[in-house]
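My main concern about presentation is that the manuscript never shows what a single data entry looks like. The format is easy to grasp once an entry is in front of the reader. For illustration, here is how one protein appears when written out as sequence plus structure tokens:
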Amino acid sequence: MTADNSRWAGRADADAILALVQSAYRGDASRRGWTTEADFLDGTRIDRDHLLALMPAADSSVGDRFQQGILLIEDAEGLVGCAHLHATGGRVWFGLFAVDPARQGQGMGGRLLQAAEARAREDLQASALALQVIWLRDSLIAWYQRRGYAVTGEQMPFPYGDERFGIPRRDDLHFIILEKPLQ
């Protein structure tokens, strides 16, 4: 654990991460926070197999130069938030960002984002952090922009037909890309 209370997740953390992510993104529990996707996506945000595939092998470590992992932030009460970092294509991608809905609005998301930026720089030698956000999420996009992220103009399609990412309630979903250089 570091001074910012962040650490890389291990496979033993999977159940806690799944519960956190589902509560932050989908269903009635997610409506307690401001980051819900429940109005335009049903189903789960991520399944166990997909989550485990985002973690380095059990015998990997930062020293082994893994290319992805899930960063956790915790406090005395337990797991507060998580984020997936994945180095690919000259970028480190930031995703699966979730903060306990009961703890949103207390600065925890900002702390987790800062920890992710530091880990991307230090552990993955990143010069920039990129992320994708569903275009409908104006308040979330604005939140990232206040933290130095810029809309790149790139778009990515929503993975319609792949229920591992949810069941769309609309047919116009796509992602916009934001990026921030890391000093």
